[in-house]
Amino acid sequence: MAVFDVTAVSKTYPGSPPVRALDDVGLTVEEGELVCLLGPSGCGKSTLLEILAGLQEPDTGTVAFGGEPLTGPGSRRIGVVFQDPSLYPWRTVLDNVALGLEIQGVPKERRRAAAAENLSLVGLEGFERKYPHHLSGGMRQRAGIARALATSPQVLLMDEPFGAVDHLTRIQLQADLLRIREHERTTIVFVTHDVGEAVYLADRIVLLSPRPGRVHRVIPNTHPHPRKRGDIAALEQESAIYTELETLER
Ligand SMILES: Nc1ncnc2c1ncn2[C@@H]1O[C@H](COP(=O)(O)OP(=O)(O)O)[C@@H](O)[C@H]1O
Ligand SMILES: [Mg+2]
């Protein structure tokens, strides 16, 4: 059964004039898949991700999560990572990562153990007792990922999570995400406007048209793992997607 089943979802933000963000979007996400939502800025990617997270409701259409209608935010089975990890400055890295478990009422020792385990998974072993201001941007983003993973979600929703870090760190984080995913087998929906990022990460790329966002095409990405930067087949796919984006923007 699909993890997400999105049918005919539309969304318009009120205002004058109103902004039609999504128009008749349909897609499915299967268990264990890494799906990239790729499209130009403003095409409704964040809106769609927020709808998947239950943070927003579509005007029309339906979203099923594991075959059940999605009802509001707060499903423990869904973890979300935004561009800004918003760690609490007064909490240690460990206590930030343990936050979701604390909210769930998991006892202190158990949540600290889980947080430490996930910090080590994202490469932040040894930083448990530091505070967010001690960390670089890339490390803060890793902590945000560890926080989302700590509650063992079935699916991770990520909205341009590496958008604010420098290029080389970004490349490292992308490789780490594939490694983490290999380890955890988490289903991931990853929003990006970076073609190279989508081609490197995705099992399937959902190419969205400019606003209102519609699914222009779903592109399977079968390049074998481990993936290599600058691989000719990947570059050719990138090039084809750039060409397609140009025709869309005209
Ligand atoms: N809360 C909101 N109120 C009004 N307009 C919004 C709101 N959120 C997003 N929009 C508009 O909806 C469109 C899609 O936004 P968004 O989903 O953030 O796109 P993306 O993430 O692809 O850049 C944009 O034109 C944006 O300005
Ligand atoms: Mg966005």
Automatic annotation (TrEMBL):
<dbReference type="GO" id="GO:0005524">
    <property type="term" value="F:ATP binding"/>
</dbReference>
<protein>
    <submittedName>
        <fullName>ABC transporter ATP-binding protein</fullName>
    </submittedName>
</protein>
<keyword id="KW-0547">Nucleotide-binding</keyword>
<dbReference type="InterPro" id="IPR050166">
    <property type="entry name" value="ABC_transporter_ATP-bind"/>
</dbReference>
<dbReference type="InterPro" id="IPR017871">
    <property type="entry name" value="ABC_transporter-like_CS"/>
</dbReference>
<dbReference type="InterPro" id="IPR003439">
    <property type="entry name" value="ABC_transporter-like_ATP-bd"/>
</dbReference>
<dbReference type="InterPro" id="IPR027417">
    <property type="entry name" value="P-loop_NTPase"/>
</dbReference>
<keyword id="KW-0813">Transport</keyword>
<dbReference type="Pfam" id="PF00005">
    <property type="entry name" value="ABC_tran"/>
</dbReference>
<dbReference type="InterPro" id="IPR003593">
    <property type="entry name" value="AAA+_ATPase"/>
</dbReference>
<keyword id="KW-0067">ATP-binding</keyword>
<feature type="domain" description="ABC transporter">
    <location>
        <begin position="4"/>
        <end position="235"/>
    </location>
</feature>
